[in-house]
Write a structure and sequence with these properties.
This protein is an alpha+beta fold and about 100 residues long. It has a single domain, classed as NE0471 N-terminal domain-like. It contains four helices and six strands, in the order αβββααβββα. It has a three-stranded antiparallel β-sheet with strand order 1-2-3. A three-stranded antiparallel β-sheet has the order 4-5-6.
């Protein structure tokens, strides 16, 4: 399976919405990521949920980031209100997870 191209993983804009993030990609496509989905799929939590015997982390419907930062190296960082941690996502990984919506 071929991955997304470099241009399609470049983020032009990140817009926080009430319940999720809108990301406009370098190819002008737009994707929507609900905050709860982002929390559930955070690399830190994905790793811990794969361990046998570990309970699944439950995230409230109202989960929101306290900050969102996009770095030049195509990393999106979110600081969570509900946790004392931050999560970093590769924009390449995010693009591969969410089909683009019509811009």
């Amino acid at each position: 399976m071929k991955g997304p191209s470099t241009i399609s993983c470049f983020v032009q804009d990140v817009s926080p919405e009430a319940n999720g993030l809108l990301i406009q990609w370098g190819d002008d496509q737009v994707s929507y990521f609900p905050y709860r989905w982002l929390a559930e799929n955070a690399p830190e939590f994905r790793r811990s949920q794969n361990r046998r015997g570990h309970e699944t982390v439950m995230f409230p419907e109202t989960i929101r980031p306290r900050f969102i930062h996009l770095y030049q190296n195509n990393v999106l960082e979110l600081g969570w209100n509900e946790f004392s941690c931050t999560t970093c996502f590769s924009t390449v990984w995010l693009r591969a997870q969410c089909p683009a919506l019509a811009a």
